[in-house]
Amino acid sequence: MIQEKRRLWKLVLFSIATLGIYNIYFWYKFTSDLNQINPIDKKIKNYILVCFLSIITLGIYRWVWFFYLADRIQVTGKRMRMKIQPGPGVTLTWRLFGTFILIGPLVSDFFVIHNMNKLAKAYNQNFKKHTKVIKN
């Protein structure tokens, strides 16, 4: 079962309380679940690797990764016959240019988390439908 109820406020609150450690765990688990929902397409990179590459590239790699993450969610939604809005372009625009008004990264995180929750719910319903319970 994939977690269906990820919340932005929990991410923000717990990341502040744990000095960013929860943020790493959250995105690590997020990408792991997305790779489980869509095992066909190229896998999204592990978030711990993303953190390392972001340090080397002065944060640029995280923006690229975030675009691929939003794109992968949209592609997975198309495979599951779901409409995922907004797309990766809008999400990345909020992340980049919304930084100037301070809430842009939160808005883009909200879009990605909300879309992932929709995918997870559809995946779990489909998984339950195709799973048989064996009684002893």
Largest sheet, in brief, is: none
Please tally the helical runs, counting DSSP H or I stretches of 4 or more residues: 6
Roughly how many Å apart are the termini? 23 Å
CA-based gyration radius: 16 Å
Give the mean pLDDT. Answer: 90
Number of strands: 0
Class based on secondary structure composition and strand pairing:
mainly alpha
- Please provide the ordered H/E string of secondary-structure elements: HHHHHH
How helical, in percent, are the residues? 55-70%
Anisotropy-based shape: globular
What portion of residues belong to β-strands?
A: under 5%
How does this structure look, described?
The chain is mainly alpha-helical and 136 residues long. Helix content is 68%, strand content 0%. The chain is built from 6 helices and no strands. The protein has helices at residues 8-17, 21-37, 47-56, 60-79, 88-97, 104-129. It starts with 7 loop residues before the first helix and ends in a 7-residue tail after the last helix. 24% of the residues are buried. The model has no long low-confidence stretch (mean pLDDT 90).
